[in-house]
Amino acid sequence: MDERTYTADAEPGDHVTVAGWVHEVRDLGGIAFLILRDKSGKIQVKFEKDEMDEELVETGLGVHRESVISVTGGVEEEERAPTGVEMLPESLDVLNEADAELPLDPSGKVDADLSTRLDNRTLDLRKKEVQAIFEIRAEVLRAVRDYFRSIGSTEINTPKIVATGTEGGTELFPITYFGEEAFMNQSPQLFKQLMVGSGLERVFEVGPIFRAEEHNTPRHLNEATMIDFESAFIDHEEAMDVCEGTLKAAYEAVEENCEAELDLLGYDDFGTPDGDFPRLTYEEAIERINATGELDEQLVYGDDLSTEAERALGDDVGGHYFITDWPSEIKPFYIQDYEDDPTTSKGFDLMHPRMELVSGGQREHRYGALVEGFEQQGLDPEQFDYYTKMFKYGMPPHAGWAYGVERLVMTMLGLENIREAVLFPRDRQRLSP
Amino acid sequence: MDERTYTADAEPGDHVTVAGWVHEVRDLGGIAFLILRDKSGKIQVKFEKDEMDEELVETGLGVHRESVISVTGGVEEEERAPTGVEMLPESLDVLNEADAELPLDPSGKVDADLSTRLDNRTLDLRKKEVQAIFEIRAEVLRAVRDYFRSIGSTEINTPKIVATGTEGGTELFPITYFGEEAFMNQSPQLFKQLMVGSGLERVFEVGPIFRAEEHNTPRHLNEATMIDFESAFIDHEEAMDVCEGTLKAAYEAVEENCEAELDLLGYDDFGTPDGDFPRLTYEEAIERINATGELDEQLVYGDDLSTEAERALGDDVGGHYFITDWPSEIKPFYIQDYEDDPTTSKGFDLMHPRMELVSGGQREHRYGALVEGFEQQGLDPEQFDYYTKMFKYGMPPHAGWAYGVERLVMTMLGLENIREAVLFPRDRQRLSP
């Protein structure tokens, strides 16, 4: 390619080559306009039929929408053009002609259902509003990683092919691994814990997780991108501080660096959270939910929170909040209980008013208690020996959490369906593209 | 946890709490020393038996090596201490006692074979030299991502569960996906190409790839972390520029930000590449290899380069270099050929003197030629319809490449085995931990 200028950088007086997609062609008779679109925006290309090379005009006006072209010419100020400038083409190359019929209209003028959009993500992502979601998603990942590094956390990658699932159970996709049965990992939980016992002490990972759950809802995925954090020598309160810190860092970064994207998505007030996230104990949460009167039946201690209960509390609180001090029996066995109250766990959830975002807690770091937990869960501790045995060789107290970037982006941008926040979602029906 | 100070931050005159692992206890009679180790370094804790609380002394000197403890006390200057300071303990908590017998000696005084080390990665990573590799690996990822962002590339995540492999073929791990056959993805190739045709134009991904290759060598893994780049509107030459840019950025960042780690690993001169990487055509490469006289048999045009051939050329060039203009028949079908010479492809490899690092090229963006390529490869284009059909709707010219972070770290640090650069490697024998 010759030196190419983004349309957004083309200034009056420049002589440039721009390349992109034919967004629209409007033929007004003596003159005609071709709108060329690239990553950065759009530019109007003006054809003056009587004054320009015939072949050039014919090529430019005959090319199908969404074809890829390259145009060279001068840039002039033009008040009536959408961006205030227009190009007068001197040459035009058709780099790849598109079919006349498209399965999806990238101009967004014709609505398409989500399934058609996901089948044609390439075209779907030519819509600036869709592109904006994924630019924001990338910015969220950048901001979260930077935050982790600012607190001395080391990035790790742990294996996705594993011999046993994190919590055993049935929600695993089986793999054939050189003749052996293996699984796709449902969480880096055990591996990140092994690493806080190493010299790294404090680690994070951003990577895929796989869950063979059969539900098919607007907020579940069978493959998601998880942000995992785990640190030695912190407790669940400090883990919540870090969690809150990453979330605020993500919102702040998006507000600061994604102004154009937020504009496109129609945000006047983006709503970066300010102030500390309230931390309600499970008991307080239940009382508040019952007090809303929104539920048909009053909750009692030990109940898990239904979607309706979460919604009622979310509306009541009105922003992000933590729920702490869960009954031990409804939290995973690897979460530590309070020493003075073994029926209450040091697990926590971070809630967005719309849904649960984060699960975390202080972990059980004592070998005996951990092995007991496996047994109570009905799991064979022998199978997890590669993990539990390290707890005999100096495992520090530690805490951590995980959240999916898709749920974060979904709640941040108010998306109706979590599939809007994934390029190529995987669910029960969807395995391709 | 109470406020904790890293050992490296403890200054004479401070009163601090440090927490970490018992690295060593030396009892000299009237006085004894406990060396406490944490992420940041080590500190000497001095016990004066006659002057200190008897229980404190007994606990401190009786605790097993690699136990996790927390010590509070004053810090004093002490020339004879390894770090120039020592602590006088006032209180000491044993947070988690280690077994007396360890499967691996984290002090590194007793050698362990790689398999034992990988079985006990938690202990293995308490060795500063091992920890250093993974701190450097994390810095490499940071630097490469920052470089990508500096050239306007958007981070993406593509699915790891797929209906068909990138190049078809047999080197795929099969999954059972809700009763359907699926595979773990061997490369984001097809997905990243779909994204350069979207509004994103220029993308990168850092994520796992899975290859069911049966070889078991010091430089192959069955699960690796791949750095993928792809961009619209660039050719193979520009793709090589970006590739070279990321590599130099990684070396520079490590040299600048990982001084302590490089010291630990014994580097006087790290060898950040300077100057442009030479770009040899395949024909030039063959001539140079033949001229070295290192090979028993002369290479002829069309031969792939054996490991010995790569070594001979690597020694001859003495640094990183590209090989371009490969015969089309030994490059994947999705690499574009020269228009004026369809037997020569726009594929390239980036070589380190020790081994191949990167594979890349300009891609075939024309629908007809792409479908023909699938057929010539013996693949059914119908199966890849989700991918090929997007080439009918305005796929721009594009190019890209991929390299594994493990090979990069391995060559950067001169590691003998690629497994040294992965926390939990996966190979034919190793599925756990």
Automatic annotation (TrEMBL), chains A, B:
- Asked if the keyword Chaperone belongs to this entry, the reply reads no
Question: Quick one: which residues bind Mg(2+) 3?
Answer: 356
**Binding locations of L-aspartate:** 167, 211, 359, 363
Residues that, per the record, bind ATP: 211-213, 219-221, 356, 404-407
Annotated family: Belongs to the class-II aminoacyl-tRNA synthetase family. Type 2 subfamily.
Q: How does it assemble?
A: Homodimer.
Its protein name is Aspartate--tRNA(Asp/Asn) ligase
Which species does this protein come from? Halarchaeum rubridurum
